[in-house]
Amino acid sequence: MTDQTMYVILLGPPGAGKGTQAVQTAERTGLLHLSTGDMFRENLRNGTDLGNLAKTYMDKGELVPDDVTIRMLLERIGRDDAKAGCLFDGFPRTVEQAKALDVALTEQGDEIAVTVLIDVSNEEITRRLGGRVSCATCGSVFHEIFNPPNADSPCCDSIKMIQRDDDKPDAIANRLQVYADQTEPLVEYYTESGKLSTVNGEQSPDAVGVDLLAALQAVSS
Ligand code: AMP
User: Fold this and answer.
1) Residue from 82, 105, 117 nearest 215 by CA
2) Which of 120, 141, 175, 184 could in theory staple to 16 by disulfide, Cβ–Cβ 3.0 to 4.6 A?
3) Distance CA 76, CA 36 (A)
């Protein structure tokens, strides 16, 4: 499926399952998975200025400013390993970011093949994010109700679970508001350019993955 260059965007509210689906879909298609959230977290772990700046926004559930985010992403897609296409996860999150990506791809003779919206209601998102925890040692992600940590595991036992600052209740509410205000307009943006495909994100993760792959296959022939 990926003999051709293909740029794909995964769109959806925080907690829609973009990260999980992106990892699996990248494995199945060979597309390079690019997550701006992961890039910021890696910068933070490495103690870079960019990481420290991003943290001040991430902890509150706000977006890192467009100029900083766009610069980081454009630098990344300019590298050789991105030339065969990418699966964008968490980018773009504003119309300004979407326009900058369109311009950059057009300059290199490419374009977005499809934007897949993983559609999940606000009620479901609040339920999912509220219980999300990760292991303080290895970083594995669990959910207190849907995927509880294994009490017998030598690493990921429940007393070692921590909650991301941006998964705390105030930050969740803010992230949903930020999504509605700044990211949801992208649904219209990509609908207008005929590039939007929607999958039901309230199915099982496997079923979402199947629909996602079908959406990519529909534009790859
Ligand atoms: P994520 O892991 O995709 O949920 O991203 C975590 C946080 O990183 C977000 O809440 C934002 O603060 C920041 N972030 C990630 N991607 C972007 C983006 N495209 N634009 C602005 N901020 C972003």
Assistant:
1) 117
2) 120
3) 10
